[in-house]
Amino acid sequence: MKVYLYYIGKPRDSHANAMAADFVARATRFCACAMREPRPDRADPWAKHPAARHILLDPAGRAMDTAAGATLPHELARVLLAEQIYRALATLRGHPYPR
After folding, report:
1. pTM of the model
2. How far is Cα 26 from Cα 4, in angstroms, rounded to an integer?
3. What is the 8-class DSSP label of residue 64?
4. Alpha carbon distance 97, 61 (integer Å)
5. Reduced to 3 DSSP states, what percent helix, strand and coil does the chain have, rounded to the nearest 5?
6. In a structure prediction context, what are the per-residue pLDDT tens digits for the chain, which is 99 residues long?
7. Are strands 2-6 and 32-36 parallel, antiparallel or unpaired?
């Protein structure tokens, strides 16, 4: 399994981006993971990974079930997603992190 976390646009908060990068780096212990900013004019992630499951986070998209999630800043949403990916992989491998 490979996990690619693509994001559009430069992050404004370098600390949030560093936290997301840290969780992606931790997740690489369990499977191939990468966080990338694709350039739409050079590559299409949909075409590159046609059989992959695509999950999008869009500030203009549907509100999350949790009211707090609806007001979540874009950079923090990336950190949350990266942490959840790491948590899921750690849980599947019996790592003590999620306990």
Report:
1. 0.75
2. 14
3. P
4. 31
5. 40, 10, 50
6. 888 888 777 777 889 889 999 999 999 999 999 888 877 777 676 777 777 776 666 556 555 555 555 577 778 888 988 998 999 899 989 888 766
7. parallel
